[in-house]
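ok so I'm stuck.
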Amino acid sequence: MKVWVINAEGGIDGLQMIDRDIPKPGPGEILVRLKANSINYRDLSTIKNAAARGIAGERIPNSDGAGIVEDVGPGGTAFKKSDRVVGTFFQDWLSGSIHEGVMASALGGPIDGLLCEYALLEERGALHMPDHLSFEEAATLPCAGLTAWHCLIEGGGARAGQTVLLLGTGGVSIFAQQIAKASGIRTILTSSSDEKLDRAKALGADVLINYRDCPNWEEKVMEATDGRGVDLVVEVGGAGTLEKSIASVRVGGRISLVGILTGGQMDPTSIMRKSITLQGIYVGPRDMFERFNAALLQNDIHPVIDASVEFADAKEAYRMMEKAGHFGKIVVTI
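replied:
not stuck anymore, here's the structure
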């Protein structure tokens, strides 16, 4: 089978396609013929900074993939041949709060990921795909999709009638927009592109702010909330945007922090003064993924795919991610 592997020093250009034997599933394992992957900023960062992340040998990248069960291990599993499945980001996080032991089971980092033709997954590290989704759509769910659900609903506690702030138009933010629209939650969304803002409006975004035209966008957020501030921010920028997010949230509000897309530093004093809850979100457990999938099916939500590239051209997907011109998700078809 063909697999892509990381070269610890080479970045995107150092990615190599090599041949490996198709593995055999052991007890409690399934062999999945991958049909699609999706790209996350985390995948790009891992490839570009592999040595710093402790990756020295050949490591298959990408946490997110969907495909067909080709074989099951001795004794059988909850899955059968020909089932359509999607992997979980953390193979060992089944439920409850995250803990240190979970971290070593992240696909495409500590262990091999899914940018390959066949992969072994733990039975507990896979779910049946929502029936209404294609393989390409399902491949976008494990990281960006579940993170958005966690930030907004299960971790963020957002409810119908509340207002949330979404930064940019990447995978997490666009998933959050779709979830919010289905949940009766008002959204304020930022972008540097009027074209992307128009696309977000078509998805139901209520207030649109071009942060290039309006660098003090937190003032526009306060105007749009009559000076109160939003109930929740899905913060994907990190330190570079966090101060503006803090200025945008109401007293006693919440910020779900998931991204490190921008550099910079910030003074935490205002977090205390406004009694803000600042919570780091790192994807979510398997049972939360099941609830997220049920919501997608119930509301007939289809992930937004901006671009699709062939497996042989996978490097191009990372270059697209690096340019940050996408709206929603970038996928690789296998």
